[in-house]
Description:
With 439 residues, the protein is an alpha+beta fold. It contains six helices and 14 strands. Among the domains are: 2-69, no CATH class; 319-327 and 334-434, Distorted Sandwich (Glucose Permease (Domain IIA)), CATH 2.70.70.10. The chain is 60% helix and 16% strand. Strands 3, 6, 7, 8, 9, 10, 11, 12, 13 and 14 form a ten-stranded antiparallel beta sheet that branches. The longest helix has 128 residues, at 37-164. The protein is rod-shaped and about 200 Å long.
Amino acid sequence: MRLRLIHDLHAALERRFPERRLFLRSETETRFIRLRPETQAIAWTGATLVVGWTIVATAILLMDSIGAGNFRAQAARDRTIYEDRLNAISDERDLRLTEAQAAQERFSAALAQISTMQGEILRLEEQKRELASGIEAMQATLQEAMTERDLARNEAETLLAAAEAGEISLATGADDELSGALGVLTSALSETAAERDQVAASAESALEQTAELELELRLMSDRNDAIFRQIEEAMVVSVEPFDRMFRAAGMDPQRVIDTVRSGYSGQGGPLMPITYSTSDAGQPDPDTLRANEILGRLDELNLYRIAASVAPFSPPLRDGYRFTSGFGARWGRQHAGLDLAGPVGTPVYATADGVVTEAGWHSGYGRLITIRHQFGIETRYAHLNAIRVEVGQRVSRGDRIGDMGNSGRSTGPHLHYEIREGGEPVNPTIYMRAGQDVF
Length: 439
């Protein structure tokens, strides 16, 4: 049975691949090689497999080449988009910074003008009180003189009426004495009348001055109100970007302010509340209350700036760079930060004030710097080429702490940048985007 199958197979192969002979002729003899059907079948099968494998491999290479070209083109387009976006963010940041500086300058000038005006208001109030006291004294003196004049006039009229009626008899000496008394009385009455007219003129002048002062005070109050409105608008423009920045980063602005206030012992001076009062009841006048409210907002702005300096809102790189990997799942693993690529030696900057807790080699991170900030935040800067800080050193936002490199598990020069809250990694772009209108 087995022999029959072999015979049938040989017959089928012989029909498809008949036996052939390959002659090899030399000068002295002729030789031939017999190609059996089985040998031809094996050779044909091998050749077919080689050709097929070549076609498949060529197709795979072509597909990979086309896919790689599309990927590179897409990566180039993404890089261009990122660079354009970064340039726009940088320009907008510079514009916002210029606006904030201009608002701060306007506020400082307005605050100085308010201080000058407050002094002028106090001087005018004091002058007004002195004028009011003088007017009251002049009115009392005038009233007393008029009373004495009326009494003297009544007494003189009574004496003259009695003399004319003959109710009293006067000797010649007495008549002369009475005449002299009447002359003295008349002179006194004339002086009193003149003094009365002078006091009345002084009182009228004082009233006119009082009206002028009141008009000046009203004009000054209007100017103060306009200045206060400008300052309040400037404060709103200055505070709102910080408020939006903290909210965008998922931080409660009030909790941030309370935390900074509890741990910061600032100095007095321009932020001390105004405690004097110019009202009659001893209560602060509206301008004082308004000024104190503005000073409170200025103190809030100052606390916002302190909080912004200790939270990582600024980017770790300033020179040209590109995003090569974002936060999240990558190759089936969690990528805990951002990869920012650039040339070796690119300066790396601290993104917030803090204390260096690690500065050295750390396994796959390579050369690593770790900085602890307030609010339980920690930043990491990995794969560095050089480290420029030491453990325990305090750094400020914008200080150069190292150079970009390719140390540790890295496929090319880049910075691996992480932000951790309470030990858990968070997306650094949240902070960077939140701070793009401020830094």
